[in-house]
Amino acid sequence: xxxxxxxxxxxxxxxxxxxxxxxxxxxxxxxxxxxxxxxxxxxxxxxxxxxxxxxxxxxxxxxxxxxxxxxxxxxxxxxxxxxxxxxxxxxxxxxxxxxxxxxxxxxxxxxxxxxxxxxxxxxxxxxxxxxxxxxxxxxxxxxxxxxxxxxxxxxxxxxxxxxxxxxxxxxxxxxxxxxxxxxxxxxxxxxxxxxxxxxxxxxxxx
Length: 206
Fold this sequence. Notes:
The mean pLDDT is 80. The protein has helices at residues 2-84, 107-112, 121-152, 172-205. By secondary structure, the protein is mostly helical. The chain starts with a helix and ends with a helix. The protein has one domain (49-205).
């Protein structure tokens, strides 16, 4: 009976306490919901910005490779045509303008910014392969360019000594040099096609 009386006596206070607890609970829940919604919006914006940035890197790759392919394709075509006519043309030489290697935006840098969160695992894997091969392209170009600077440019503008006097053919080291340029062109075409395919997939996600 005393318990009942105490309850009746303190009922307004208990009711007020319960009401305040409910209000606090609702407020905290609403705050969490608003924060979650804000975070979702930020994540969506971040995802779109990262997809756009990745698309730009692929656009850079495609544009660079097509310029490279056009120039090298003409050089090799003219060289091969001259060889077929029995001439001794100068070696085709490609020099990357303004840098030691073709321009690439470092894949590790993109990953470190959290861009991977914007990608499904398969697309991320395909992009990782592409950027690995772009690095390989850069390394191959550096080796090609080293030979250019050490063995081709010192020949002078006439490139004397490139052909074997006995056979009239390119000396083996210079024939291999031309083949390195052919390999670079073929790899650039493959990377160009791969980059274009991945860019189309990224564009479809935006």
